Structure formats: structure tokens, C-alpha cells
């Protein structure tokens, strides 16, 4: 199976992701080995900090990445990971953001170092400026905002607002904090995950292209092949084609839910 990674910092030298050309080559070769054939390049855009000039540099580097990735038979699409904060209205007014290329979808995040209460208090407000412009927010790594355990009602509220919910492969693989994995598993069991992506930052360590490993882990934990394929390939494909996503409705066996966390 081929995978589509809709969240990754593969475009080198422009944020805290891949550092240079050499590392970009290594990262792309790992992505190819993992069966990734399409990447949305999503460099960090921080509302209030990222300038129009920065945006031009990022677009140029994404174009460099497109050329480089084609030698690995990987297609790259333009995007960003927009940090929502009190300055988002102004940043969006100024056009400092990049939706997924030729689509209405835009990857949005909140500061993961802030307390969960801050996320609960402000995030939906900040989302409004994205939605008013007609974009459909994809919420990046939702499992990372809930430091004391997931609030499924709040995630359902985000889904009801029309948001797409993304979690990271690192959380599926148990490579982050234990609470992130617990949150991810609860979201998966509640059918509240629409897409899984790598949030790649490096060519070694935790945040690497690891979609095949995430697929294998999902199967090992008792999720169906159909569910794993939907989250790692089917829905990502809908997003890049500007189509509606499919809402999952799967159930793990009682045994798997009880013993395979
Ligand atoms: Fe990211």
C-alpha cells in the first residue's frame, strides 16, 4: 500500500524540521522505503511572527523539495502548519498562510506547551477566522493538547464544527509521552481520528517518516486493515483532492480494547 503524509517538516532549513539538503535526502529515502508516495510540506507558520517575506522563502524551499522528491518518486504538495493565537485574525487578513495546494483544507495547531485549559478557552475562537475565510481546518496532533487525558466531548465539538482530526504516528507507536498514546488510542476507539500523519522533523530519532510502522502497529493492536488504510491513505487522499473525508465507524474487539493499549 502507498501512504500519503499530510503533515511533515520536510522542506529543509526553514523551521525546526529537516535542517539541510543532506538531511532532506535521507528523510526522503526513508519516506520512500516506508511506502510514502505523496507528502504535503507543512512548515510552521506562527501567526504574528511569520512575515510575508518568510512565506515567500518557504514557498521557494517547498518548490526545491518538489524537485528533489521527484527523484525519489514522491510527489510534494504545498501547505503549512498554521499556529493559531491572538494574532491569527491579522495574519489571515494579510494572507500569511498556505492551505493544502488547490484545496480548502488547512493544517492548524495550537501551542502544545500551553495548559489544556488555555486550548479549551481559546482554540475554537481562533478557528473562527480560518472558517470565516472558507477553509476547513485540519487539527494537527489533537492528542498533544490534552495533558491530563483526552476530553472526547471537546473533540466531538471540533468535529461538529467541521474540523478534520489528525493524530501523529509517534503517538500510535508509543514514541511520545504515555498520555499522548493513551489519548490517541481513546480517540481511535471512539472513531474520532480522521487521518494519521508523521509530523516528520528529522531523518533519525522519533519524528521520522514511519507510516508503515504505524500501520503495522494499528493491526497489531487489533484495528482492522480497512480502518488503518482509511486513516493512512484513504482520507489523506480525499484531503489532497479537496474531497470530503469518510467518517470511520469501526470497533475493535473487546479483547483488543482491554489488553492492547
Ligand atoms: Fe508539525
From TrEMBL:
It catalyses: O-phospho-L-tyrosyl-[protein] + H2O = L-tyrosyl-[protein] + phosphate. Keywords: Hydrolase, Protein phosphatase. InterPro entries: Caps_polysacc_synth_CpsB/CapC (IPR016667), Pol/histidinol_Pase-like (IPR016195). Its EC number is 3.1.3.48. GO terms for molecular function: manganese ion binding; protein tyrosine phosphatase activity. PANTHER family: TYROSINE-PROTEIN PHOSPHATASE YWQE. This is protein-tyrosine-phosphatase. It comes from Intestinibaculum porci.
Amino acid at each position: 500500500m502507498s501512504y500519503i503524509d499530510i503533515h511533515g517538516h520536510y522542506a529543509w532549513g526553514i523551521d525546526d524540521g529537516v535542517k539541510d539538503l543532506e538531511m532532506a535526502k535521507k528523510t526522503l529515502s526513508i519516506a520512500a522505503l516506508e511506502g510514502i508516495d505523496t507528502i504535503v510540506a507543512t512548515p510552521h507558520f506562527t501567526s504574528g511572527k511569520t512575515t510575508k517575506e518568510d512565506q515567500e522563502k518557504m514557498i521557494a524551499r517547498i518548490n526545491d523539495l518538489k524537485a528533489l522528491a521527484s527523484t525519489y518518486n514522491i510527489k510534494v504538495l504545498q501547505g503549512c502548519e498554521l499556529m493559531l493565537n491572538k494574532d491569527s485574525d491579522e495574519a489571515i487578513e494579510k494572507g500569511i498562510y498556505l492551505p493544502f495546494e488547490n484545496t480548502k483544507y488547512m493544517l492548524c495547531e495550537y501551542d502544545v506547551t500551553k495548559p489544556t485549559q488555555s486550548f479549551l478557552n481559546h482554540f475554537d475562537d481562533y478557528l473562527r477566522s480560518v472558517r470565516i475565510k472558507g477553509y476547513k481546518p485540519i487539527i494537527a496532533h489533537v492528542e498533544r493538547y490534552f495533558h491530563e487525558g483526552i476530553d472526547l466531548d471537546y473533540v466531538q465539538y471540533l468535529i461538529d464544527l467541521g474540523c478534520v482530526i489528525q493524530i501523529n504516528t509517534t503517538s500510535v507507536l508509543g514514541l511520545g509521552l504515555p498520555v499522548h498514546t493513551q489519548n490517541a488510542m481513546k480517540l481511535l476507539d471512539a472513531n474520532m481520528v480522521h487521518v494519521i500523519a508523521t509530523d516528520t522533523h528529522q531523518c533519525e530519532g522519533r519524528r521520522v517518516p514511519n507510516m508503515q510502522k504505524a500501520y503495522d502497529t494499528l493491526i497489531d493492536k487489533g484495528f482492522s486493515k480497512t480502518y488503518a488504510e482509511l486513516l493512512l491513505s484513504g482520507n489523506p487522499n480525499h484531503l489532497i483532492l479537496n474531497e470530503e473525508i469518510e467518517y470511520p465507524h469501526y470497533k475493535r474487539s473487546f479483547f483488543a480494547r482491554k489488553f492492547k493499549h
